[in-house]
Amino acid sequence: MSVISALNINDSFTKSLPADPLSDNTRRQVKNACYSYVQPKKTAAPKLISVAKEVAQLIGISEEEWGSKAFLDIVTGNELLTGSQPYAMCYGGHQFGHWAGQLGDGRAINLAEVLHNGQRWAMQLKGAGPTPYSRSADGLAVLRSSIREYLCSEAMFHLGVPTTRALSLSLSGDEVLRDMMYNGNSAYEKGAIVCRVAPSFIRFGNFEILASRKDETTLQALLDYTIQTFYPELGAPAPSTYIAFFKEIVRRTMDMVLHWQRVGFVHGVMNTDNFSILGLTIDYGPYGWLEGYDPDWTPNTTDRQNRRYRFGNQVNVAYWNLIQLANALMPIIQDAPALEAILQESQKGFGPAYFQMMRQKLGLERTLPEDVELITSLFERLHLCETDMTIFFRNLNKVKKDATSDILDPIELAFYDLEAAKEHHWNAWKEWMDTYLRRLQLEALSDADRAAFMNQHNPKYVLRNYMAQLAIDAADKGDYQLIEELLELGRTPYAENPAMEHWFAKRPEWARHKVGCSMLSCSS
Ligand code: AMP
Ligand code: MG
Questions:
Q1: Element housing 178 (H / E)
Q2: Distance 107 CA to ligand 1 centre (A)
Q3: pLDDT at residue 1 in the model
């Protein structure tokens, strides 16, 4: 047992919900239970690579402790916190549109929930060894995918996108065999463990598995627990509270996806087991950031054929997932018209919310009907030739509303092939910019105030796919400095940061078709 003095363990999930009666770590179907107790695997040579200090503070770990051996032992699963009873959750899920049965925490182990400053935080290790839910896999994670999860979850938080957090990134010292592109080329990679932190890691799939097994007693217990613990403001569990709960999870989920569309994030694996019951972005696998604006793009090669989880389909898929959640809750709520009405109302409201978000990106405070055409015609143009989404919107803050000449200068940097854009599409762009300038005339804000307003909605820095890959390549050689630099950069993504200006750049050509930059599989 090990001690991190200030951590105040207060388990609620395991205290409130039924456990798997078996305690051996064999792969199995787990019925009438929400989780199985399981011990993390000891690792060969654990080494701490990075700590997100603000996350440590969030859960009550002090500065003296986060570099200690005790801390390392805990965040790699080599020692347990006093009082910790680790467990893996049971859940199912719809993967790529098909019911997949029991999935569960196959390589995630929850250490404990802690209370700090009145907030509940679950600590979970990803890659700490097999569990009863590991099916045919090893329960481990490799360094490259762990770096991607660690950096991206923190970057997303600072971008203002609801997300799980990451406390630490460590090497396990073990070797992990992976077929990175599923093409028969297996190789050993460095094993790693991320300690994730969120109020809860419950997913849509936790409800779906119970509904699929017609275990209404446990389903009701899980629903009541979720509401009482994470949605107390909705009131005590009762039919009207269940409806209010569904309405709130619909609201939160669609708010999360709206943020994804705002910043150009493509999740890559929007299976229902990867959808949080708190509306948090969860499970950073083959995700990617839009560089050239392309609604058909998905980074996930496993989804290459159907592109189900492409950027432009994320909103539809989120609604599809919410329907699966509604189906799972039906045995308890038993009011299909009410659930359908909530979904329909949300869908009706999503369009206006989307255009409102886009108005903010364009620096428009007023709501005018012609904005819909302005925004729609902008997206048609962004797609004409390769145009960097982040640079385009950020540099739009340089537009002067009284400009009469060189009106396209502010956005030139966004084009991957500026000469081709000028040759083939400049008239279309001029036409759009003229309309935009006329529209700006109807706004009260000065150029400077509008720029400041836009900068709150258009990040300067996102974790471009090649940036994470550079950090991975360096870390593979034992150099972790870039991980720290990108973690730091991600802390202030909306601020001008002259020392970091080199990251405000289009994807370099070498990264266009490189594995890890534009192509990622689920292998991690
Ligand atoms: P994902 O697509 O990463 O969300 O994973 C889908 C399911 O596969 C989840 O139940 C995971 O726990 C499980 N899984 C993924 N990778 C592994 C692994 N290396 N070992 C055990 N289970 C895994
Ligand atoms: Mg998952």
A1: strand 165-178
A2: 6
A3: 44
